[in-house]
Amino acid sequence: MTKTILHPTLGEITLSRTRRAVRIALSVRPNGSVRLSFPSWVTQGRALRFLEEKHDWVAENRRKMAEKYPSAATPLSQPSKELRDEAKVVIPQMVARLADLHGFKFGAVRIKNTRSRWGSCTAKNDINLSISLMHLPSHLAEYIVLHELCHTVHKNHSARFHALLDRVTGGRDKSLSRELRSYRPGI
Ligand SMILES: [Zn+2]
């Protein structure tokens, strides 16, 4: 069994459940793709918990791969001009509206043609967001925007970061994260 999930902070993860695997294993390839393989006797839930435990390791290794192999990142098929034009209006508006509502300060907003991750926040509080947000239901796109806005306050995924994200999502951090994780984009 092989399938792809979209993790809220790690982006696209390939899950591979095989009889041959002897243990749960994670790998990050030069193009940034992440593979989580696990034996058939391990449940998907257990494997995903393992992924959460290794979250920072994955993020760090992906960053290293991007530095070492800058040209390896696989570009998406080019989105249509209409979608790009629409994204350039819709996404920055969403960021500005949510920042205003919750009192976040941010720098520039950039739209990236990437599927490996939904978004990121730089040290200068510039926010990068994937054009793939355009394919999400608005409450999930907003959840990703709020996640990045919370990084303007906390540059990590600490308990304080999640407490803030939970507050700005009206106590729905965990449930939205679950929903996003199981969301299958129709693209
Ligand atoms: Zn994050």
List keywords for this structure.
187 residues; 2 domains; three-stranded mixed β-sheet; binds zinc ion; Zincin-like
The distinct bound ligands, ions and cofactors come out as: zinc ion
Q: What is the CATH topology classification name of the largest domain?
A: Zincin-like
Rg: 17 Å
Count of helical stretches: 6
Spatial strand arrangement across the major sheet? 1-2-4-3
Query: What's the pLDDT, averaged over the residues?
Result: 87
What pattern of helices and strands is seen along the backbone?
Answer: EEEEHHHEEEHHH
Structural class: alpha/beta
Distance linking N and C termini: 20 Å
CATH class of the largest domain: Alpha Beta
Helix content: 40-55%
Number of strands: 7
What about the largest sheet? 4 strands, mixed
Description:
The chain folds into two domains: 2-68, no CATH class; 81-182, Zincin-like. The strands form two sheets. It has a four-stranded mixed sheet with strand order 1-2-4-3. A three-stranded mixed sheet has the order 5-7-6, covered by helices on one side. Helices cover 42% and strands 19% of the residues. Helix 3 packs across helix 4 (138-150). The protein is of the alpha/beta class and 187 residues long. The longest helix is centred in the middle third of the chain and has 22 residues, at 81-102. Bound molecules: zinc ion. Residues 9, 147, 151, 157 line the site of zinc ion (ZN). The site of zinc ion has 4 residues, from loops.
